[in-house]
Each structure stands twice: as structure tokens, then as C-alpha cells.
Design brief:
It comes from Maudiozyma exigua (Yeast). The protein is of the alpha/beta class. The chain has 29 helices and 30 strands. The longest helix is centred in the first third of the chain and has 24 residues. The chain binds the ligand O=P(O)(O)OC[C@H]1O[C@H](O[C@H]2O[C@H](CO)[C@@H](O)[C@H](O)[C@H]2O)[C@H](O)[C@@H](O)[C@@H]1O and magnesium ion.
């Protein structure tokens, strides 16, 4: 490749470091993080790439502290306390946002609290790879809180565990879960902020794994619509994606899908996971999908989320085969292999190495081994199982403590039954081991046994096959692998010995079979499995090549994605405005689409929100619908006098505060109705389940309840027949949502909107009077939220866009602080819907959440939106942000003894 390198913004849940702050020297100690080796080697590979320029964004992880004496700590605390309290207005400290209540940054309150100055932040940045951008989340005493939702709610469920891995104490209102969800949203928002700082047009954003499920959509919200539309976002899911029956148990299932479908491509470890994901989208988001085979013969779905476009596929991750080979075959590892062989001379060695958690199937492995020794007495004292279990961060969770007890019991039982004073057939090591020891175990193994009951890939299987591909003086080549069918790697290593870990007899038999394989048989299997291992380089290249292709396709097709409505900005603008106009479509916007039009009635929640909105004297509310007067009167006119109504797509209007309807179609000849009715009746007779809705002016033929293919076919037929004569009557034949509607051309929803905007705000309407387009801008609305789902609502959006353009010329100096006039034309539906609206909300549920946000019924984080964070990870301008900044200043002063080094950042 010549010229400029393609920039990749690679987002990982944590930078590949373990970071410690040595408080006595103020120095950072940086060590490589453990785990995630495949992902981290992909980062390493990209770092040296000649084709790509990689920018990594990741959380610092929990920052450890080291080496400060108690006396020094106390001294610092006292001094810092004095400085911090003098830097703050004490009265402010009472105004705590409840979401920030754990975020106090006043030094001295807690030994565990971490203080990081701006200089230290800069210092860290200079010590790590220059392209690595830390996401700072310093606002908590408990740094692990950022993991809670991902690790205790999402992770277990994605591994088919319905009980949370860590028991949480729920208040009666579920506030613990709410708090951890809030943290999860904030975690994702912190990334969106950081990316917004570094993004350049043309960048590809690559997001990894379940900590960042909301990030794709948050990014589209964070950027202006022009940039937001053109972002190219890929997401790779490293964990399993469960079947819909499990996924649906997640309380925030819909928010999570909404977050994720902001990506252009979502990729999984295997086809099964991608199928599960597509099925969840179908059931929860009402998406449709088209399956095809991609260029490597794998299933690829073109998913239409509310009619949108998104690619869902699978691209199983690989391992850094070259690095593994170079690290596993060194003289040092050679001698370790010899030592292991020596220790178990004459015995077959089975190696197990897993994270110590319930899904890795350690219990199943021990049971199978026990069964093996019981079934095949000839192997007793001839085989050793060396099981290394690495502790997880959840080591002290009740589940893991229980697991530890069970494992210990099983190990003791096997060793007492089949061992003797000189030999224990199970050697269990509950510890982390260094890489060279791990490699020496893999090399020494006669068999590798992986019995996980659920995992995304299990790259250790790939590492084993890699190591066994090399012949060496330690007879390492081609020793077999027994692999659980529930491990993600079983869909890649199809030629390994695949077992059901729950069937201990079958696993026992497989162990026996594996030991009985001849060298020729083993070599053959090895040749095949080795050919199935992907290197991390080709995995990375393949993923990115496809993303580049997606980016180009988007450009060439001029495919625009409508960004999600930026609700925090909407809220701010709403609060700042004095003359607010709300223009709501009804069906599909305020209520979900249902089979029977008569059943689409307002919910109590909708009434209560509309009541609150309409009681605010700064608000004018209008429902502009295709429904007739009778329907709108029954459900709105008779319930809330403060709402203006427009029926039949602008044919009738009822002003706010009056029961009278004005008929704008009065002068129109209605003789066409007879003919249209005849044609519609004829098609109704041919289409069981269809019916005609007869309104005062318009006629609507509904076919939602018909056999879909017949309904679609006859709808096309009806349209064809109608178009043969409706032109003569100046009629529009419109395709709605499973309906065909005929109405006069003269008016539309856009005409009503025009009238409502060019009108002295808050005064009664005289609908028969011509428009006064000389009105000064400060007599017209300064905030307009217009929501609609249908094609007919595009007239409203178009009208608002054209008024905005006109005002841009005439009132350029009257823009608000966001540089516009407070117009929000918002379509209800997918991001990819063809629309002239500036933003989208996915469905009526989101509409209600958004309106709820304006009237204070829903808090921002429940609704999920972007908020601004400072560089330290606090909500910008919040109490905790100020405190943290003050604490940082205090700490800097204390350290330097001068005010000159205070960095103004943050
Ligand atoms: O402008 P709107 O307020 O969105 O009204 C448009 C049409 O909505 C109704 O039909 C649609 O919604 C029904 C209820 O969910 C559904 O059963 C039907 O299939 C949809 O087409 C209404 O019946 C029409 O009169 C409106 O013109
Ligand atoms: Mg509608």
C-alpha cells in the first residue's frame, strides 16, 4: 500500500497493562496485563503495521497503589484535606447528584481512594505506547465498579448462567442493578468522549467485546449528523452470544441491542453465535434479515433493523502462532519440559489449564478423569492429570468458593481412590503460572483436555495445536486434543476429538481412544487441526479488510445512517427554550403498530407524560395524524383540552383549547369516494383479513391481518387500479404501514406544520387566514420536536428543514447556543431508513422514554444518552468533577510546593 496509512481506532475494555502508582516516588509501574492474549497480540501486530495506523482506546483498569508509609499517608491526607477544602465552596458540596454519590474526591477520607494529578496522567501517557489513549475513570473509591454490570450481569448470562456470578444486594427498587447499569452506560460514554477527541474522518472504529455494547450507538449520538452518518464502526464479540431464550432474560436486553446495532458490522466467533444474535434482533427489534454466504463460505446476514442495514457475520479469532513458536521453543523451556517429563517418567501426561470459573468445566473434567480410571484399570498409575486453574478477579465470590470446595473434594477423592503414597493421579495447581511454564506443560503433554461447558473461543486450544505442530527433541509433535463441543474453538478445530463434557463416560472413552492412536493417526489429525488454526495476523487483516470494504461501499452508495437523537442535547435545549412546539404523529410514534387499528390506544404512561407536557405554559402540543376526527376526539380531544389535533393528514384541524374542528377539505369534491370504495371492496373480497377504514375524507384499505404474500400482492394490484383514475380527481394514493390510503392532494401534514410554525406563538389559530410570513422570529417557536414514523410524516420534516434553511438566511444572527433554531425533526424507526429527518428514535418505547426525560419521569442514564465527562472521567461540571480537580490541585501543590505547575486541564 502506498500513501497514507488507514487509521484504526481500536477500542478495548482495558489497555494491555497492569498499572501501579508508586506513591512514595510518584512513579508509574507498568506491567503487561495477563489474559486476553489473542486480542492483545492483535494490537501488537497492528502497532507495527505498514498498512494501518492504530490508535488504541482503553480504560486504565484498576490502578494499584504501592509503597507509601502510614505516617506519610496521614501527613499527606491532613495537608490535602486543608488544601482541598480551601479550594472549594463548602456550600456546593451539599448538592450531590445521587449518581455521583460514590465519587467524592476529597483526599483523606479513604485509604483506598486513588488521587491522580494531571501531571501524573500526562506522565503515564508518556510512559506507555504513544498511540495508546487511556480512558480515565477516577471518580470512585471502588475502581472495580466499572466492571460490575459487564462481569456480573452480562458475562454470566452470555455463558448461560442465570444467577449473577456475584451476589448483589438489591434494594426493593433494584437500585444496585440500576447503579451498575448507570456505571456501564458511563463506562461506554467515557469511551465515546475519548474517541470524539481523536476521531478523524475516514477512521475505522473497531470495538471489542461485551463491556462496550452501547458504544456504537453512543458514537453516532456523540457526533454531528454529518460525521455520525459516515462513521464506519465494526464490533467484534469475543464471548458467546446466547440463544434468544437466555438473552431475553437480560433486563436491559433492548437497550443493549439498540446500542450495538449502531455498528455497521457485528462479528462473532462462530456462525451459531451470529445466528443467535440475529434471532434476538428479530424478536426484540422486529428486524428482518437475509442470509447469504460470504467470500469464505460462512453465513452472513444482512440485517435490516427497522428497515436498516447492518452486516452480521462470524470471524473466529486466531493466535499469534509465530510468537508462540518463538517463545515455546527456547533452551529454557526445553529444560522445563525435560524436568516435567522426568518427574512423570513412564506416565502419560494430560494437561488442563483453565480460568477457575464454573463455565470452564473443571468439575466435568475431573469427573471424566475419575470415570476413565474406573473404566480402564490398566491406565491407573500410568496417567497423570496436571490441572492448572488460574484464579479470576471473582476469586472470593460465593460461586467460586463453592467451586473450589467441589474441586478440592473431587481431587482428594480421585487421589485417594487411585493414588498411593508416591503418586497422586491429579495434580491440581490453583495459581497463575508464567508463560514459559505454561508452554512447557503444553509441550510435555501427551494429551490436552478441554471440557468447558461454555466459552467464546478458548484460544488455549489453538495455542496447544500450534505448539504440537512443531517437532522437537522433546517429542512434542502431534499429541491429540480432546475438545468440548461447547467450546467456541470446536467450530474451528473440527478435526480434534470433540466431546460432550457432560457425558463423562464418553469423555473417558475418548481419553482411552486418544492414547491408543498410532503415530500415523496422530500425525494425520495434527496436520488437519493445524491447518484449521488461524494466525492472529490474518484474522486482524481479514477483519479490517472487510471493514474497509464496508466503508467504501457506504461511500459509493452514499448510504446515510440517521444518527440516534442526542437526548442530552435535546434536554438542554428544551430547558433553555421558552416557546416550545411539539408535533406528534400518532400511530407508530406515540403507540406501537398493532394488528387492529381500533386497538392502538394510548397507554396510561403516554397520557401522564402528555398531561405533564401540556401543563407547562411554555409548551404547545399537537397531534397530527392520519386518523379521523372521531378517533382523535375519543382518545385525545375529550381527555386533554390543551392538545391541538389535526386529522386525516391535515384535512381537519382542532385548535388548542377549543372543541371545534375546522374542515379544510370542505370545498373539495368527494364524488371520487364511491369509485375508490368500489375498487377497494373488490380487492377486499379477494383478500381475506383485509378491510376498509372509511374516514370522512380518506379511505384506507388495511391488509395487516392477511396472509402476507397475498396481502402484498393485492396491495400492489389495488394501487395499480387506483392509479388508473385517481390522477383525474387530484388524489394521492399512499402506501402506509400495511395499508393503501386515498386522500385529496391539496393538503398534507407539512402544510399544517408550516401554519403552526409561522404563527404568533401561543395565540389562537385562524386556519382560514393566509399565513403571515413576516412574523419576527421571536414570536415563533424556539424549540420544535417533530416525531413521526411514516412516509407522510416526511412532509413535516421537509417543511421544518425548509423553514430552517430560510431562517438561516434571514436570521443568521439569531441562532441558539447550539448554532441552530432548536428544530428536531425525528423519524421513529431505523437509523438506515430513508428520511429527511435529522435523527431517529427506534420505536414508540424510545419516544416515551425521551418525552419522559423532558418531563422528568425518566433519568438520563435509564434512557441512555451521551453526557460530557471531564478528562478524569467525572461528569463535566458536576460536584465530583470540581472536587476531583481541587484534590488534584491540592495534591500537586503538596508535591511541588509551588503553584506554577498546576495544569489547567480537566
Ligand atoms: O398518521 P398516523 O397517526 O401514523 O396514522 C396513519 C394510519 O395509522 C393507522 O393504521 C396503521 O396503524 C394501525 C394500528 O397500529 C395498524 O393496524 C395499521 O396496519 C397501520 O397502517 C390508521 O388505521 C390509519 O387510519 C392511519 O392513516
Ligand atoms: Mg404514523
Amino acid at each position: 500500500m502506498t500513501g497514507k496509512k488507514q487509521r484504526i481506532i481500536n477500542c478495548v475494555s482495558q489497555l494491555p497493562y497492569k498499572i501501579t502508582l508508586d506513591e512514595s516516588s510518584d512513579e508509574w509501574i507498568i506491567n503487561p496485563a495477563t489474559g486476553n492474549s489473542a486480542l492483545y497480540s492483535s494490537l501488537e501486530y497492528l502497532q507495527d503495521s505498514s498498512k494501518y495506523e492504530q490508535i488504541v482506546v482503553g480504560w486504565t483498569g484498576e490502578i494499584n497503589k504501592k509503597n507509601i508509609t502510614k505516617a506519610e499517608l496521614l501527613k499527606r491526607q491532613i495537608e490535602n484535606e486543608k488544601l482541598a477544602s480551601s479550594s472549594l465552596n463548602k456550600n456546593d458540596s451539599k448538592q450531590h447528584n445521587h449518581n455521583e454519590n460514590t465519587a467524592t474526591a476529597t483526599p483523606g477520607q479513604d485509604d483506598d481512594k486513588l488521587y491522580v494529578t494531571n501531571e501524573q496522567m500526562d506522565n503515564l501517557k508518556s510512559k506507555i505506547n504513544k498511540n495508546y489513549n487511556p480512558v480515565w475513570l477516577l471518580r470512585s473509591r471502588n475502581q472495580s465498579r466499572w466492571r460490575t454490570y459487564a462481569e456480573n450481569i452480562i458475562w454470566p448470562l452470555f455463558h448461560y448462567i442465570l444467577n449473577p456470578a456475584k451476589e448483589v444486594n438489591l434494594d426493593s427498587d433494584g437500585s444496585d442493578t440500576n447503579n451498575s447499569w448507570y456505571d456501564y452506560v458511563k463506562f461506554n460514554e467515557a469511551y465515546a468522549m475519548k474517541i470524539a477527541e481523536i476521531y478523524q474522518p475516514g477512521d475505522i472504529i473497531w470495538i471489542h467485546d461485551y463491556y462496550l455494547l452501547l458504544l456504537p450507538q453512543l458514537l453516532r449520538m456523540r457526533f454531528s449528523s454529518e460525521i455520525g452518518n459516515n462513521l464506519t464502526i465494526g464490533y467484534f464479540h469475543h464471548a458467546p452470544w446466547p440463544s434468544y431464550e437466555y438473552f431475553r432474560c437480560l433486563p436491559r436486553r433492548k437497550e443493549i441491542l439498540d446500542g450495538l446495532v449502531g455498528a455497521d458490522r457485528i462479528s462473532f466467533q462462530n456462525e451459531q453465535f451470529s445466528r443467535h444474535f440475529v434471532s434476538s434482533c428479530k424478536r426484540l427489534l422486529d428486524s428482518t434479515s437475509k442470509k447469504e454466504k460470504n467470500d469464505i463460505g460462512k453465513d452472513q446476514y444482512n440485517v435490516s433493523v427497522y428497515g436498516g442495514d447492518l452486516i452480521v457475520d462470524s470471524s473466529p479469532i486466531g493466535v499469534d502462532t509465530e510468537k508462540i513458536m518463538s517463545e515455546a521453543f527456547t533452551p529454557d523451556v526445553d529444560s522445563k519440559v525435560d524436568a516435567i517429563r522426568q518427574a512423570y517418567q513412564g506416565k502419560k501426561i494430560i494437561i488442563g489449564r483453565d480460568r477457575f470459573d464454573p463455565v470452564r468445566g473443571i468439575i466435568q473434567k475431573l469427573r471424566a478423569f475419575e470415570t476413565f480410571l474406573a473404566m480402564y484399570p490398566e491406565w491407573r498409575e500410568q496417567v497423570v492429570l496436571i490441572q492448572v486453574s488460574s484464579p479470576t478477579l471473582n476469586r472470593d465470590s460465593p460461586q467460586n468458593i463453592r467451586l473450589e470446595q467441589q474441586v478440592n473434594e473431587l481431587v482428594n477423592s480421585i487421589n485417594s481412590q487411585y493414588g498411593n503414597l508416591n503418586f497422586a493421579p491429579v495434580q491440581h495447581y490453583y495459581m497463575r503460572i508464567p508463560k514459559d511454564v505454561y508452554f512447557s506443560l503444553l509441550r510435555a503433554a501427551n494429551l490436552r483436555l478441554i471440557t468447558s461447558v461454555r466459552d467464546g473461543m478458548n484460544t488455549t486450544a489453538l495455542e496447544y495445536v500450534t505448539i504440537k505442530s512443531h517437532d522437537s527433541n522433546s517429542n512434542c509433535y502431534g499429541m491429540p486434543l480432546i475438545l468440548s463441543e461447547f467450546s467456541g474453538s470446536s467450530s474451528v478445530l473440527k478435526d480434534a476429538i470433540i466431546v460432550n463434557p457432560w457425558d463423562s463416560v464418553a469423555v473417558a472413552k475418548s481419553i482411552n481412544t486418544a492414547f491408543a492412536l498410532t503415530k500415523e493417526q496422530r500425525d494425520k489429525i495434527q496436520e488437519k487441526t493445524w491447518s484449521e488454526v488461524t494466525s492472529i495476523k490474518s484474522w486482524t487483516d481479514r477483519f479490517l479488510e472487510k471493514m474497509i470494504q464496508i466503508g467504501h461501499q457506504a461511500e459509493s452508495q452514499d448510504r446515510k445512517k440517521t444518527p440516534a437523537l442526542n437526548r442530552p442535547v435535546l434536554l438542554e435545549n428544551y430547558k433553555a427554550a421558552d416557546r416550545r412546539l411539539f408535533l406528534f404523529d400518532y400511530d407508530g410514534t406515540l403507540t406501537p403498530i398493532v394488528k387492529d387499528p381500533a386497538a392502538a390506544i394510548p397507554t396510561a404512561r403516554l397520557y401522564s407524560i402528555m398531561e405533564k407536557l401540556s401543563q407547562d405554559p411554555k409548551n404547545q402540543i399537537w397531534i397530527i395524524s392520519g386518523r379521523d376526527q372521531a378517533f382523535l376526539n375519543k382518545w385525545w380531544g375529550s381527555k386533554n383540552k390543551h392538545i391541538g389535533l389535526s386529522a386525516e393528514h391535515g384535512c381537519f384541524v382542532k385548535d388548542i383549547g377549543t372543541p371545534e374542528w375546522v374542515n379544510l377539505a370542505k370545498k373539495f369534491d368527494m364524488s371520487w369516494q364511491v369509485r375508490v370504495n368500489e375498487v377497494m371492496e373488490e380487492l377486499t373480497n379477494k383478500t381475506p383479513g383485509s378491510f376498509i377504514e372509511r374516514k370522512e375524507v380518506a379511505l384506507t384499505w388495511h391488509y395487516r391481518a392477511t396472509v402476507p404474500e397475498l396481502g402484498d400482492y393485492n396491495a400492489a394490484e389495488l394501487k395499480k387500479q387506483l392509479l388508473e383514475f385517481t390522477e383525474d380527481f387530484d388524489l394521492d394514493v399512499m402506501e402506509g404501514k400495511k395499508n393503501i390510503e386515498v386522500r385529496p392532494k391539496f393538503g398534507n401534514k407539512g402544510e399544517i406544520v408550516k401554519r403552526l410554525v409561522w404563527h404568533k406563538y401561543g395565540t389562537p389559530q385562524d386556519l382560514l387566514k393566509p399565513l403571515d410570513q413576516t412574523l419576527p422570529i421571536d414570536q415563533m417557536p424556539d424549540f420544535i420536536l417533530c416525531l413521526g414514523d411514516d412516509f407522510t410524516d416526511e412532509d413535516m420534516f421537509r417543511q421544518l428543514n425548509s423553514i430552517e434553511t430560510r431562517w438561516g438566511k434571514e436570521y443568521n444572527d439569531k441562532r441558539n447556543k447550539w448554532g441552530n433554531y432548536g428544530f428536531y425533526p425525528v423519524t421513529v424507526g431505523s437509523a438506515a431508513k430513508v428520511t429527511v429527518a435529522k435523527a431517529h428514535l427506534t420505536d414508540p418505547q424510545q419516544v416515551l422514554d425521551t418525552l419522559g426525560l423532558l418531563v422528568g419521569n425518566v433519568s438520563l442514564f435509564q434512557s441512555a444518552g451521551t453526557v460530557d465527562l471531564d478528562t478524569r472521567g467525572h461528569v463535566k461540571d458536576s460536584e465530583s468533577s470540581k472536587k476531583s480537580q481541587a484534590a488534584s490541585v491540592a495534591y500537586t501543590l503538596k508535591r511541588t510546593g509551588s503553584s506554577t505547575s498546576i495544569n489547567k486541564k480537566g
